[in-house]
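Side project, low priority. Logging it here so it doesn't get lost.
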Amino acid sequence: MSKKPVVVAVVGATGAVGEVLLRVLEERQFPVSQLKPLASTRSAGTTITFRGQDARVELACPEAFDGVDLVFFAATGGLSKELAPEAVKRGAVVIDKSSTFRMEVEVPLVVPEVNAAAVDDHAGIIANPNCTTTGFVMALEPLRRAAGLKSVVVTTLQAVSGAGREGIEELEAQVEARRAGQPAPEPEIFAGPIAYNALPLCENFRDDGYSSEEVKLLFETRKIMGLPGLDVSMTCVRVPVPVGHSATMLVETERPLTPEAAREALAAFPGVVVMDDPSRNVFPTPIDVEGRDEVLVGRIRKDLGSDRLWLWQVSDNLRKGAATNAVQIAETLLERGKL
C-alpha cells in the first residue's frame, strides 16, 4: 500500500462503527497525516482518542471538509445524503457506510476481495455494503470462482449492534430488567422485545412482505458480484447477540462441487477461514468472530436431496461488515492510484 499521507475525516466518529473505524485505521497503520473526527450536534464538542492523542469532535458541516482528502461516513443516511456531495465538491473521496448511494449506477459498491477493480470507476463516492451482505458475498465468491453460481437460499441471524450502539443498549437494558424480575423497558429500536427472543427484521416492511434488510441482501449481492440475475431467496432475523452476524446458506453452483472442493476453495480465499470439524464440535459462532476481520465458514455439507451445498457463515458486523471493509476500500484506492 502507498504511504501517501492522507488527511482523513470520519463522520460519526463517536458511534459504534465510527469507534471501530478509528481503531482499524490505527491497527492497519493507514497513513493518516491528520484526522478530523466529525459528528452531529449531539456529539460535537466531545473528545475521542486516536493514536494516543485526544482529538476534539467537530460539527459535521460542509466547511469541515475543506482540505480533506478522504471522508468515511459512519453515520446516518440523512447525513450522508446531505454532506457526502459537499465533501466531493471540496475534492475529497467519500466512502459511505449507509445505504444512501449503494444502488446508484455511478457509485461502486465494493468488497475489495471480491471486486476491487470497481473503485477505478468512482466519481467521488464509493459505497460500503450492508454488514450482512459483506460476509455473505465473501463466502459465495470462492464457490463462484470454483464452480459458478446459480442460486442461494439464505437465512441470516443478525446481531443487535447492526442497529448501532442503541441496539446494544436496548438488549442490555431488557436483559438486566428480566434478571431483576422487573418489567422490561418498552422497545424503541426493535419491533418487539429482543432479550431472550428472535425477531424478523421488520423495522421496514415493504408492501410485498419483504423487509428492507432482505432486499438489500438481494440487490447488493447482485451488484457486487456482477450477477444481475442471481437467484437469492432470503429471510433476515434479529437475534439477541451483541456482535456477529450469522447466516445459513444453501448454495446451488453451476457445476457440481463436493464439500471437500468447497472447503479447499474457501480456505484459499483471502479473508476467509474455514472452521469445519463437526465430530469435534468445531464450527464458527459469533463469539469466535468478535474482534476479527476474517469471515468464518463451517458446516460445509452436501444437501441430502440435491447437489447443492449447505454452509454456515459468521462475520463481525462492526469490523469486516463495516469498518474494516471501509478501510480496505481506502487501501485499495491508494494501491490503485485512485486517491
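Brief comment: The two ends are 12 Å apart (CA to CA).
Revisit when time allows.
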